[in-house]
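Suppose a classmate hands you a notebook page containing two proteins, each written out with its sequence and a corresponding row of structure tokens. How would you begin to make sense of it? This section walks through that situation. The first entry is reproduced here exactly as it would appear on such a page.
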Amino acid sequence: MEDEDRKQRIREWYQEYSDAIYQFIFIMIGDHEQSKDLTHDTFLKAYNHMGHFKGETSDKNWLYRIARNVTIDFMRKRKPIRYIADSLKAFPSNDHSPERIIQLGEAEGQIYHALSKLKRSYREVIILRKIKELSIRETAEVLEWKESKVKTTLFRGLQAMKIQLQKEGYDHETI
């Protein structure tokens, strides 16, 4: 593929998918500025590895897979204590100011806070299936799992999220 063709394709993908990729990364790490940087890194990596893209998955799923790997690499490089502290800052449990409620909505804020407390595999599958609304097959492609693992992990993740929400005093039957 010619360099100009690769640049055009990346521009098109960025136009179409950058917001979704950014949201996915932000939900994973809870840091706006770092999410912007990792989104940029995702598209840069896609550009550099476009020759390896065989079209076996959709463009979107390939980009989600890259975003996931970029985010995991970032999280591994950071010190775990700092990552946990940053995550808690991004999702404060007792910030119920009117501004915050207006910004996220009280229920949504509590859900994101509970989600931030789950283990990574649960967070990833819940974000992809329930927030980004990918199919089971698409989620399996992004995570490089079998479809049965997606189903099992999603079920367990949603159960863990219900328990976490109950621990935090949130009792809502729609979760």
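The notebook's second entry, a different protein, reads as follows.
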Amino acid sequence: MNIHSQLTVNAWTKWMMSLLFMLLPLTYATATDICQQRLTKEEFKARQQAFITEYAQLTETEAEAFFPLYFELQERKRELNEEIWNLLKTGNEKNINEKKYEEILEGVYDTRLSIDRLEKSYFEKFKKVLSFKKIYMVQKAEMRFHREVLKNFGEEKRGDKRPPRGGK
């Protein structure tokens, strides 16, 4: 592999990772919206808390210290994601020029950076109540929970229990 193709692969990988991390916060908002069609916000949070507690093997003391911080973070992320959606909606208006699209996108990326900084600040708080391994397990549990929510929603929407195309 020559240096040019190596740089291209590295740039592509970096771009894909950036895209993944930009979309992760939106996953929470989407999963919340989907579940709220059938569950109240409190029911969704209770199920999420139970799932994360079990998956990450949190003790009762750890859960009591962790979840107020966790749900505070989720609420603040929801507010920031709402800002992103509102910015993106302005792009649907008639007669938008390039300058306005630039402003919209700058706002979107700035808000995504705010989400990243917010998550980092809460990581500092999480370190005070959980071990690094448990924080890691919480992250995995959160992703698995949202994957399950979306999978179950897809099954309900199809009206059957067939696996999605390309699935098992």
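A careful reader of the second entry would note: Residues 3-36 form the longest helix (34 residues).
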